[in-house]
Amino acid sequence: MKNGIINVYKERGFTSFDVVAKLRGILKEKKIGHTGTLDPDATGVLPVCVGNATKVCALLTDKDKVYEAVLHLGLTTDTLDASGTVLTDCSAAAAELTEDEVRAAVLQFVGTYEQVPPMYSALKVNGKKLCDLARAGVEVERKARKVTIFSIDIIKMELPLVTMRVHCSKGTYIRSLCADIGEKLGVGGRMDALVRTRVSAFTLENAHTLAEIEEYRDREALDELMMPVDTVFAELPGRQVKPEAVRLLMNGNRLVEDDFAAGCDLEFQKQPVWDVMKVVSECGQEKSVADTVREGERMQSVENIADENRQERSGVHAVSHGQQAQESADVINKNNWIRVYDDKNIFRGIYQKLPEEGNYKPVKMFL
Prior knowledge:
Blueprint (H helix, E strand, L loop, with lengths): L3 E7 L5 H12 L4 E3 L8 E8 L6 H5 L3 E9 L1 E3 L8 E4 L1 H4 L4 H9 L3 E5 L8 E2 L2 E2 H6 L9 E14 L2 E8 L5 H11 L4 E11 L2 E2 L6 H9 L7 E2 L10 E3 L5 H5 L22 H11 L1 E3 L14 E3 L2 H4 L10 H14 L2 E5 L5 E8 L4 E7 L2
Parallel strand pairs: 3-12, 15-18
Antiparallel strand pairs: 1-3, 1-14, 2-3, 4-11, 4-12, 5-6, 7-10, 8-9, 10-11, 12-13, 16-17, 18-19, 19-20
Helix pairs in contact: 1-7, 9-11
């Protein structure tokens, strides 16, 4: 059985379920799961877990994400995006807006706010998906949920279109954010395009289409694109057990300090997640959906974002990707989690150090 995570570039027209189904056929593996739904019209990063890596699906779903979206001011639809039926058209009023007014309204959403999920979503109420209810003409009350917008960068503004990069917490609907911004401006708004550019360590730059994954399979080179399970835990320290403690480890038993090999604290071999984000932030180059979102094709252009554009926030401070990610890593490390490897340096699980008990207990095993 293959074990690992494949960073799939979800193309337009595919559901997340479609991607998983097609990968089962390509890889000839049944144990496959995705890490967060993307709408059929959306494109971008969709990490897919294979084999024992499916145990980290929930962990990746909980990670913060980065999107690039095109907001169309002046129009509202029943689906909150361009695929729906137009409900109101305030294009004339939207044409009167200034860039300063729009920028100020957008940046008001940086921080934590209560967001109402859209009816056209996979959320369930009384066992039924909201989208199924919506298609049947039934609308139900949805409770607002607290979400956090860590930062919003306005990449391009050609009113009534606003292209923006959004770094947000799990559970955030960018369609709802677009609608909320439009409502704040009094003209309404819908989402015209969406690309997910990052989920944890997985970025647009290292994502692969289904056709590319098939090519790797045909060349028997799947190992080149399948990222190891411990990539998800890159920020944690690593420990290796002694040969005589391997049996305890493989049985998922608790470990004590004497079970670990002395002087074998492991440095993660791949570049840590947070360092990758720091490099992206410093070089100032990230892929943009502006002008290049088109049917069935991968977005190819790279747009340089000048530092002065990041400062046009009218005094509103947005937490950088690297800073927020490091804060998330600090929270995890405070739990005293470590990566544990066997005597052959094969990753076997996550353990938590319990100083008060003098031992380490298993948190998640990958045997």
